[in-house]
């Protein structure tokens, strides 16, 4: 019996062992299936990623090739601060084409040391207030024909397919805003290899460049074009500065007009008294009394003081502005509030914080209307005034015929004889 129990126990242990082996085998088979499945998944994933890597590499090569063949550089210029030379502008469309050619030559010269730069396309955008420039050039008598500047702009734009001279409209910040937004747009464009900026005349552009001054990649891609006068804040920036030859003005535009060809003043002989004749009663009129025997000249130049025989100041005859000049002036005053007397009538204003309007410049008829309007305010010194820059009135517009008599602001000078006796040049 003992032996039988021993055999039974042995069989039971063997059966337990076999059962355990079967369980282990089943587990191993399950793990094997899982491992094989994972292995196949890995193989499939590797094939997929290999295909993706190959496609990405192919696309990268295409992009790199495209970036080389389609790369370009951008030149942005503030045309209100960078004025082209007088010789170019005076030639109109031909000068515009020549300016574009010179600009292209200067740009290529400045980037020729950069690898691949000669393959880049060159895009130029100049933003300016064309109406303001036209008024300025006309104001100083530089542009004889009002179409000359526009012909220059058209010639510049037409000469090169990627060159544009764009009218940004009136207002100081118009061109600034355009250029700043263009810079932000293209600085992160991988196709844009280099940017040249004609903005160093205005410290207002410095904040737009500050985000890039600590980025070596951006610093290497930005070059500043040297202006006539560099804004002092640009000295703090690390960007390269280059000079363009034979392109921009070497001097600032004058504030005053070019002097007119003067003619000697002619005074007729003194009138011969005729025997008095009875005259019909005259109706009182309010026609302006002005200095007699003078040649009309532009009112913005401090000229000689005009005195009558009693050493009293006489206001010079300026002509008549006409209805058009008065209408335009009134429209300007309504839209721009007050105009600056000294700037428009004397050609300059020394007040850096002047609250009155300086731009756009007044045309000839508007200037005459504005000068006559200023003379409606009586000078406190009256006929004793000896200031050559005084733009106020020294004579009543209605002379001795003024109906307001003592209530008139010019009552103290109603007696002034408007006939000019002599000119005085050296009194202030």
Task: Please summarize what this structure is.
The chain is α/β, with parallel strands linked by helices. It has 11 helices and 8 strands. The radius of gyration is 42 Å and the shape is elongated.
- Based on CA inertia axes, which overall geometry fits? elongated
Largest sheet: 6 strands, parallel
Give the low-confidence spans.
256-301
Give the quaternary arrangement of the chains.
single chain
Order of helices and strands: HEHHEHHEHEHHEEEHHHE
Continuous helix count: 11
Number of strands: 8
Portion of residues in beta strands equals 5-15%
Instruction: Tell me the span between the first and last alpha carbons.
Output: 151 Å
- Main-sheet strand order equals 3-2-1-4-5-6
- Give the radius of gyration: 42 Å
Task: Give the proportion of residues in helices.
Answer: 40-55%
Structural class: alpha/beta
Mean pLDDT across the residues is: 79
Written description of the protein model:
By secondary structure, the chain is α/β, with parallel strands linked by helices. 40% of the residues lie in helices and 9% in strands. The protein is built from eleven helices and eight strands. The chain has helices spanning 2-70, 86-90, 93-111, 130-139, 147-159, 173-186, 206-209, 216-221, 322-336, 341-346, 364-374; strands at 72-78, 121-128, 163-167, 192-198, 222-225, 240-242, 305-307, 422-424. It is elongated, with a radius of gyration of 42 Å. Mean pLDDT is 79; it is low at 256-301.
């Amino acid at each position: 019996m003992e032996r039988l129990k021993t055999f039974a126990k042995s069989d039971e242990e063997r059966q337990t062992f076999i059962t355990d082996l079967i369980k282990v085998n089943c587990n191993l088979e399950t793990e094997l299936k899982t491992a094989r499945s994972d292995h196949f998944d890995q193989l499939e994933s590797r094939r997929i990623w290999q295909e993706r890597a190959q496609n990405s590499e192919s696309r990268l090569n295409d992009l790199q090739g495209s970036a080389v063949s389609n790369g370009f550089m951008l030149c942005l210029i503030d045309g209100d601060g960078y004025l082209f030379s007088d010789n170019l502008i005076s030639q109109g469309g031909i000068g515009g084409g020549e300016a574009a050619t010179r600009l292209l030559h200067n740009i290529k010269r400045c980037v020729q040391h950069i690898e691949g730069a000669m393959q880049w396309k060159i895009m130029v955008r100049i933003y300016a207030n064309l109406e303001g420039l036209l008024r300025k050039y006309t104001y100083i008598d530089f542009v004889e024909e009002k179409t000359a500047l526009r012909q220059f702009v058209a010639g510049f734009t037409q000469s090169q397919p990627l060159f544009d001279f764009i009218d940004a409209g009136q207002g100081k910040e118009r061109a600034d805003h355009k250029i700043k937004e263009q810079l932000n747009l293209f600085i992160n464009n991988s196709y844009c290899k280099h940017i040249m900026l004609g903005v160093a005349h205005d410290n207002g552009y410095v904040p737009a460049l500050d985000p890039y001054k600590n980025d070596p990649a951006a610093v290497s891609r930005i070059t500043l074009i040297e202006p006539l006068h560099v804004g002092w804040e640009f000295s703090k920036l690390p960007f390269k500065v280059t000079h363009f030859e034979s392109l921009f003005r070497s001097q600032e535009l004058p504030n005053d007009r070019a002097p007119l060809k003067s003619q000697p003043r002619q005074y007729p002989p003194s009138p011969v008294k005729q025997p008095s004749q009875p005259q019909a009663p005259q109706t009182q009129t309010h026609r302006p009394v002005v200095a007699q025997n003078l040649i009309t000249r532009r009112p913005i130049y401090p000229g000689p003081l005009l005195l009558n025989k009693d050493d009293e100041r006489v206001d010079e005859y300026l002509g008549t502005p006409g209805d058009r000049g008065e209408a335009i002036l009134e429209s300007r005053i309504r839209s721009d509030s007050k105009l600056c007397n000294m700037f428009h009538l004397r050609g300059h204003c020394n007040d850096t914080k002047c609250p009155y309007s300086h731009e756009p410049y007044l045309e000839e008829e508007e200037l005459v209307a504005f000068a006559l309007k200023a003379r409606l305010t009586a000078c406190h010194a009256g006929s004793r005034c000896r200031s050559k820059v005084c733009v106020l009135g020294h004579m009543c517009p209605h002379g001795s015929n003024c109906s307001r008599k003592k209530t008139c602001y010019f009552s103290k000078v109603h007696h002034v004889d408007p006939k000019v006796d002599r000119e005085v040049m050296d009194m202030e």
